[in-house]
Amino acid sequence: MNATLLTVGDELLDGDTTNTNARWLAAELAERGVTTERVLTVPDETDVIAEATRRYSERFDAVVVTGGLGGTPDDVTMDSVAAAFDRELVENDLARADVERHLEAIADDYPELNVDVAAEAAIPAGSRPLRNPVGLSPGCVLENVYVLPGIPSEMKGMFERVADEFDGDVDSRYLYTEEPEASLIERLNEVRERFGVRVGCYPDREAGHNRLKISDSDGEALAAAEAWLRDRVVLSG
Amino acid sequence: MNATLLTVGDELLDGDTTNTNARWLAAELAERGVTTERVLTVPDETDVIAEATRRYSERFDAVVVTGGLGGTPDDVTMDSVAAAFDRELVENDLARADVERHLEAIADDYPELNVDVAAEAAIPAGSRPLRNPVGLSPGCVLENVYVLPGIPSEMKGMFERVADEFDGDVDSRYLYTEEPEASLIERLNEVRERFGVRVGCYPDREAGHNRLKISDSDGEALAAAEAWLRDRVVLSG
């Protein structure tokens, strides 16, 4: 299984925010053996979000969209995902109940809050609502597209509810060496060709070593590649 | 002027690394009035990098590519950018001199280092080499595509040498308010429609306020929009 991440928000493109959601989600997917094929950040523009959603939905097994849920004018993700699949936004009963419950819980803190509940509880027709355990805006699943909030605590809380739906078979092994990257090239090329595994070499200057990573969906090839490297690289750490 | 960022590396897609380069570059571009239209992360695969480079180069004013320079098998960015423009990789004299100087400087630390200097100093035919003030691998500029290393210190050092080539006219203003996001919607919609400015609203839960951001390339419209909002929003901080 492979996936893509579509992270929505001008604040990411303006350099106001670091895309920590992408790393968190990618790590969660990797832990489940799922390969993240692309991470794309787009502005809060309906056409751009809809086009990217449609394209990724057709080409990859799953698309996780984060950001741009809620009621302010820059929150256009739900509209965009609906447009990507030619659906209308419709109020969802389960989502509405959640929105009302959340508003009740925060009513004392925000006595003058005036929320358009129907708009907050609207998700694309035919989609499955995803409950927001921490915040106001619900998410949804439409075909292979998962729509999650952008606020990290809300995004994480909602992802956990669907995490089991992501399941792949790619495994990885890490080796650490103080050998310089340039002198490792031949061995890294050879292990890749010999066992067909994916190979990465990442310098960690602070730790003073290079991190080698090998990945594959074939456990036997991966184990053989690891053993081959262990015999030929001076390992550290 | 607008731009896109193309960040290359399996380590970003595996969730091993947070894409701090994207935020740093986006902030540098925003400071120069340049709008970042997309940030795309792709794997270390020549076809994917080449296709994205070509597509973004055609559609946007500038493309900044980071990551995947160097000699290990996963470093395919130079090949990919060359392929995007149907060029060969050729050894560049200026780049070669830099590579040799760098190798000489680190020779005492790595006496057994065995680097293919010609390969390290190869950039796409017809491109302008970018010197690496901190590390081994040179970058380059080919048409509107800037190729920088992925290691943050090297990327930053190299970007500073071309920073003046990025120049736009978008300006931004920030306002802070403790008013809840949901109650701001009408005013945010109105300021957007009335002055044609871009509007964002970002909750900062730790600081306990919402950050409003308005941006535009028309300074008068931006000032008028800011004044209009200041009269109508309860500001904090």
Automatic annotation (TrEMBL), chains A, B:
Residues 4-169 form the MoaB/Mog domain. GO terms for molecular function: ADP-ribose diphosphatase activity. Its EC number is 3.6.1.13. Pfam families: FLAD1_M, MoCF_biosynth. Keywords: Hydrolase. It is an enzyme of class 3 (hydrolase). PANTHER family: NICOTINAMIDE-NUCLEOTIDE AMIDOHYDROLASE PNCC (PTHR13939), NMN AMIDOHYDROLASE-LIKE PROTEIN YFAY (PTHR13939:SF0). This is ADP-ribose pyrophosphatase.
